From TrEMBL:
GO MF, any single term: helicase activity
Chain ranges of the Helicase C-terminal domain: 457-611
Organism from which the protein derives: Hydrogenoanaerobacterium saccharovorans
Protein name: ATP-dependent DNA helicase RecG
Keyword NADP attributed: no
Reactions this protein catalyses: Couples ATP hydrolysis with the unwinding of duplex DNA by translocating in the 3'-5' direction; ATP + H2O = ADP + phosphate + H(+)
Protein keywords: ATP-binding, DNA damage, DNA recombination, DNA repair, DNA-binding, Helicase, Hydrolase, Isomerase, Nucleotide-binding
Keyword DNA damage recorded: yes
Amino acid sequence: MAVSFDTEIQFLKGIGEKRAALLHKLGIDTVGDLLNHYPRDYIDLTEPVSALSADPTIPCAVRAMVLSKSGEQHIRKGLSVFKVRAVDPDGTELLLTFFNSKFTVDKLQVDEEYVFYGKVSGSLLRREMNTPLIFTLAEARQLIPVYPQTAGINSRFLAAEVRLALSGLLETLEETIPSDIKVQNQLCHLQYAIENIHFPASRHDMLIARRRLIFEELFTLSLALSAVRTARDTPAPVAMQPVEIEDFLDSLPFALTEAQLRSVREICGDLAGSTPMNRLLQGDVGSGKTVVAACACVFAARNHTQSALMAPTEILAAQHWETMQKFLAPIGLRVELLTGSTKASEKKRIRAALAAGEVDLVVGTHALISSGIEFSRLGLVITDEQHRFGVGQRIALGQKGQSPHTLVMSATPIPRTLALMIYGDLDISVIDTMPVGRLPVKTYAIDSAKRQRAYGYIKQHLDHGYQGYIICPLVEPGEVDLGLVPASEYAENLQKHDFADYRVGLLHGKMKAAEKDEVMRKFKDGEIDLLVATTVVEVGVDVPNAVIMLIENAERFGLSQLHQLRGRVGRGKVQSTCILLSDSKSQDAQIRLRTMCRTNSGFEVAEQDLKLRGPGDFFGQRQHGLPQFAIADLANDVELLSAARKAADQLLKADPGLTDPAHRAIRRKVDKMLAEIGDRPN
């Protein structure tokens, strides 16, 4: 049958249902997905080295002629060894060893030349290579693609299926980038790019292809985010006049830092401007973003408009409400809390008060965007930890008013390039200093051999009247076999044994909201000494008396997530400590742990996290309005990102709705990306 980009992968020759199920694990469901499953690396066979000069620390390509093959040697049950003697063009002998590979060795022909790829070891007189990859001389004229793979699916199989798909599709590929933009940005044709990203004759050809495909991905993203912004934009904001808030600043029990005051000035300047504010307020954990947001609410209230603050969890919303009450009630502002667990009678009262203009600030969760919530005059929308909301949810809250001003707060430090992508054209304010008296959290990485010492260290703090956390990773079904223990079982064991003399509490995401609130109340009131928790405490829990944290299986958390968790301690004036416990020897895990021990800077942590995990997984969950990238890397492709954004603006000026038939292909890609993000504009 003829295939197209949309053909289900199981119908491509050589695949079928079983292999299709395996390919699904790689995100490959259609022929188009297969062609967009780009190699992660290449084996370069174009310049083989001599066996004698090969670097023993890295895999190398060695061209050699097969001299002889030994018979099968049975080492033990289930293990057979085959030896093959070969010689390279310089006359150096190379001994090749294969395990359980009779079929592979049988295919090798004596007196034939091949290119063998692997690590070379041995002496000057005889070099050796174990289980090398084998290529014919014809194959050795190009780079061999190495794909992300899974059990049952290897790179050779993927390469063969990609060749098969390309043979029937290359001629019918529809160009997605307009020709003038291609010329301006020196981009190759799509057909060339697809062919040479998979099977380049040289590294130069691969780089040309790669550049084109990265540009296309970022170009599509720029167009998609522009569509989202267009859907959000409306002509005129709620008009606000410059007003004084000095009396509010004087009423606070502390002085704002210069970075906080700078952010307040920037925000108030936007609120009094002629266009709607779209500003991102970034600050590390504990840097004091909430009081800056309170200043914005005071400014809005004195302009006779209402404010809404949306937080991702009930715990965080309740905490914001308490803080805002403390700041704003003394100057007469009316603050309400509205979440999913608010009693029906209370909801009814708050809804009526909002509609009547009797509430200055409402703090809540996504309950704020539910039907039946109406504002008298909504002037300012604040979202906290905005990457946890879909773009559509943010738009929905804004639509409760007539183009209200928007302030986005994030305690997840985001590299500027990534912030530009997520938040589009938002202006950015950064609180880059900590309040006076805050001490950096001391961070240590240990393995399980030092667990008891760590427990003893925690007890020392508890004995002095302080509190602590132990964080457990979420355990999925079937993972207990890997040595992971669910938080509930872990807490129970601690209470029975190591911490029998202390009050141990438990907090996890599957508890009902009322149960979570009760546990947090007890912890804040000092009725719990040690809180065992999952990442539900990652954001927003503020207990200054908690000064020590142990994170179990720390390798299972992303860097930014570890930084967020660490931010739950160090919120008072006592030196706090975070202990990262991990037995992982993986290079990525070691880099993460070393980074955490080296720095308390959230921005440095974020840059490293972006490099390690890429933007699609940067936040640990896919709720932030970014698609998974197949090839682009926002950490390293900044120049192409800038060029792609300019090209997108150029195209949208000429064809705002991408309705021209010549732009049909790119419009389809944009629609697909918007569907992935979950925010297709109406």
